[in-house]
Amino acid sequence: MDHDINFCPICAAPVSLRVPPGDTLPRHVCNACGAIHYRNPRLVVGALPVWEDRILLCRRAIEPRLGCWTLPAGFMENRETVAEAALRETAEEVGARVELQALYTMISVPHISQVHLVFRARLLDLDYAAGEETIEIALFDEAAIPWDEIAFRTVAMTLRHFCADRRRGVYGLHVETVPRPE
Amino acid sequence: MDHDINFCPICAAPVSLRVPPGDTLPRHVCNACGAIHYRNPRLVVGALPVWEDRILLCRRAIEPRLGCWTLPAGFMENRETVAEAALRETAEEVGARVELQALYTMISVPHISQVHLVFRARLLDLDYAAGEETIEIALFDEAAIPWDEIAFRTVAMTLRHFCADRRRGVYGLHVETVPRPE
């Protein structure tokens, strides 16, 4: 989640939360220099790497959800494209070389102001290796997927779609939302 | 583009640009409290509203590209979904009621750290009205699209795909990149 904004990052004066002229939402506005500090949702981008009939998952070595299984994915960086982000995260977390295929899921997670994008991907070889944020990597048949130990709901949703679509032989784009907590 | 970060927005102490432990890129790190201030790409989300054979475009009343034509779109806000953002921007800029259809283009603009998403949309009635950021609104046949006065490259790319896809009768998702300037 976002940090607090108490002081202007440009000039260090205190900020106030108020609706700027012409705007509709409260923003952090500097009381001295008038700069407006917007905050916007972040993109988490990753890949669903497949080798023959098996899906590559990795066990997280970091919080949140340390020890749970996930797909290689992470925050998109400034100055990269969504495809570059998916390839970079796959290289960093599981040391894998993949060929990206179509965008597969775009899932909004509004209560934490994130949008998660996952591309289907073809694993090009089995020379993968756990990066610093990964405990271990394994390839899973559908029957072996550890559903009770999946790290994030967007990953579980993506894996469920993939298993269902593979049975039908048709992989559409799935645009969905993780429901806000009650 | 992003503002400078000279001071910590939490505690107002000076920040330094350095690579935190376990990270690979320089970040703005507070010299006093140690908070790391990440910056990430922003999502711009909009709609391509269609009425019969015509596309709704609106003329911008604000910079950048004041006076040029565009699709209703804008920065996604925290705590909303991509679909909510597309509907909100369409309501704010052109006062139009639309039914969102499939996600149509996802275009990375890496040199300004943005990702632009456009949904195809069906205009539900002709009771649209220019919002504060809009000079005028019009419906365009393909032959009438003012190609030389389109505000943004991502909008022109989206309109070109739409015209070509409509001729073929097939609307796929287009995932593309605006090339970085030389």
Q: How is this fold's topology laid out?
A:
The structure is a homodimer of 182-residue chains.
Chain A: E1 15-18, E2 27-30, E3 36-37, E4 42-51, E5 54-60, E6 69-70, E7 73-75, H1 82-94, E8 98-109, E9 114-123, E10 134-140, H2 153-168, E11 174-177
Parallel strand pairs in A: 4-9, 8-11
Antiparallel strand pairs in A: 1-2, 2-3, 4-5, 4-7, 5-6, 5-10, 8-9
Describe the structure.
- The structure is a homodimer of 182-residue chains.
- Chain A has 182 residues and is an alpha+beta fold.
- Chain A has two domains: 39 residues, Ubiquitin Ligase Nedd4, Chain: W; 136 residues, Nucleoside Triphosphate Pyrophosphohydrolase.
- Chain A is 16% helix and 36% strand.
- Chain A has two helices and eleven strands.
- In chain A, strands 4, 5, 6, 7, 8, 9, 10 and 11 form an eight-stranded mixed β-sheet that branches. In chain A, strands 1-2-3 form a three-stranded antiparallel β-sheet, with no helix packed on it.
- At the A-B interface, helix 1 and strand 8 of A face helix 1 and strand 8 of B.
Features:
Nucleoside Triphosphate Pyrophosphohydrolase, three-stranded antiparallel beta sheet, homodimer, alpha+beta
